[in-house]
């Protein structure tokens, strides 16, 4: 019988560490500030922005929000981001996705100056990640690494399988695991015989967006399974992994809710603090 990883405890420790760093910044007259842009009617996005606001308040960092209505144009957003790029009091700029459908996501994300790209989505930061240079890393994969590190696991030579290849989760996740010398396989919707890969995974990271897609027969005995998926089913949150089914066979697993989602938001503040620390 495996263990459900206590992500709450991991997050608690991370917050304590961040509080110390934020206090040190304050002693140097630096108060980190996050600018959040919401340009959609998506209800989940509003919840996510609310969670970010709450954590900023808890950790004593500044947060300002720009809530834009449906009439906003690409040019409006680009000029707002350009202004925030210039504003020396702003450390991180976050554009909550998804955007209103008429907006050009790539163009807008690419307008954020890489040094304030607190989400790590800019091609410059993704490129630095690929070549193994120190950079701002996308929050969800960064949070997954925090979870793996808390288990004290040596990833070198381990078979790591990532399912999903999005710009925000799968691709940066694979790069982070590769940087730790894992042998990494990336699977996606065109992968044939997915089970053949997942059954060999010492570390399986699942970021598909399909509720309870991964079941016991698909995992390796003693594996560590990280469930990134967040799916709303009948008003309840479900991951991409059938946790109870898989738990019998694996060593570690994260739950949904109470898993990766908790580390994602803390990683955002960690990125913000890292950026602000460059001011001193
Ligand atoms: P995307 O929809 O951008 O990507 C999904 C990926 O899954 C794609 O690469 C797709 O392949 C792949 N995929 C889809 N179906 C299958 C299948 N049957 N077999 C194998 N691969 C498949 O999603 P995101 O990466 O943005 O998010 C993934 C999940 O993680 C979602 O549930 C999302 O809500 C959640 N999420 C959770 C976060 C957290 O903080 N916990 C943060 C961000 C996301 P292809 O490329 O071929 O289409």
Explain what the structure shows.
Helix content is 41%, strand content 16%. It is built from 10 helices and 11 strands. The protein has 2 domains: 28-115, Rossmann fold; 139-262, NAD(P)-binding Rossmann-like Domain (Rossmann fold). Helix 2 (43-58) packs across helix 10 and helix 6 crosses helix 10. Strands 1-11-8-7-5-6 form a 6-stranded parallel β-sheet. A 3-stranded parallel β-sheet has the order 3-2-4, with helices on both faces. A two-stranded antiparallel sheet has the order 9-10. The chain binds NADPH dihydro-nicotinamide-adenine-dinucleotide phosphate (NDP). NADPH dihydro-nicotinamide-adenine-dinucleotide phosphate binds at residues 140, 163-166, 168-170, 187-191, 194, 207-210, 228-231, 260-261, 264.
Q: Return the CATH architecture of the largest domain.
A: 3-Layer(aba) Sandwich
Are any ligands bound, and if so which? NADPH dihydro-nicotinamide-adenine-dinucleotide phosphate
Q: Name the CATH homologous superfamily of the largest domain.
A: NAD(P)-binding Rossmann-like Domain
| Proportion in β-strands | 15-25%
Question: Could you give a short description of this structure?
Answer:
With 280 residues, the chain is of the alpha/beta class. The chain has two domains: 28-115, Leucine Dehydrogenase, chain A, domain 1 (Rossmann fold); 139-262, Rossmann fold (3-Layer(aba) Sandwich), CATH 3.40.50. The chain has ten helices and eleven strands.
């Amino acid at each position: 019988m495996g263990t459900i990883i206590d992500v709450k405890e991991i997050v608690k420790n991370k917050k304590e560490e961040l509080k110390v760093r934020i206090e040190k910044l304050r002693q140097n007259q630096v108060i980190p500030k996050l600018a959040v842009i919401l340009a959609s009617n998506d209800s989940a996005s509003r919840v996510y922005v609310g969670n970010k606001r709450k954590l900023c308040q808890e950790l004593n960092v500044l947060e300002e929000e720009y809530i834009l209505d449906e009439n906003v144009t690409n040019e409006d957003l680009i000029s707002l981001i350009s202004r925030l790029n210039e504003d020396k009091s702003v450390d991180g700029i976050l554009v909550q996705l998804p955007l209103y459908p008429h907006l050009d996501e790539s163009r807008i994300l690419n307008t954020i100056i890489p040094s304030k790209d607190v989400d790590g989505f800019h091609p410059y930061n993704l490129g630095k990640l690929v070549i193994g240079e120190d950079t701002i890393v996308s929050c969800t994969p960064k949070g997954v690494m925090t979870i793996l590190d808390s288990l004290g696991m040596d990833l070198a030579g381990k078979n790591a399988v990532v399912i999903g290849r999005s710009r925000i989760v799968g691709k940066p996740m694979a790069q982070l695991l590769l940087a730790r010398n894992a042998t990494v396989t990336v699977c996606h919707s065109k992968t044939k015989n997915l089970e053949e890969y997942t059954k060999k995974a010492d570390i399986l990271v699942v970021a598909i967006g399909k509720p309870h897609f991964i079941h016991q027969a698909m995992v390796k005995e003693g594996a560590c399974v990280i469930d990134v998926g967040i799916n709303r089913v009948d008003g309840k949150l479900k991951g991409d992994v059938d946790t109870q089914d898989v738990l019998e066979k694996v060593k570690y697993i994260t739950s949904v809710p109470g898993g990766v989602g908790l580390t994602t938001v803390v990683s955002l503040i960690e990125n913000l603090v890292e950026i602000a620390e460059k001011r001193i």
